[in-house]
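Record type: monomer structure entry
Structure origin: computed from sequence
Chain ID: A
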Amino acid sequence: MNDEIPRGTYAVDIRTGRLGEVMDHHAGHVQLRPPRGGLEWNCPPEHARPATESEAGLPGGGGEGRGEEGRS
């Protein structure tokens, strides 16, 4: 996806299925951070898509913590 996803919204890295909050757009990448905090990662914009309400964990959804690794 080449359209810029707005900062503060959620996106999915389609390479891994991970959900992240869009923190910034830098050096040709979308910078994503896990919803509950953690390390940001860079995602090429063509591999990022806006998250659905369900994925983002908005009312009526259940996407919280989706795709995060290393949780105990």
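Annotation 1: The longest strand covers residues 18-26.
Annotation 2: Residues 3 and 45 are 8 Å apart (CA to CA).
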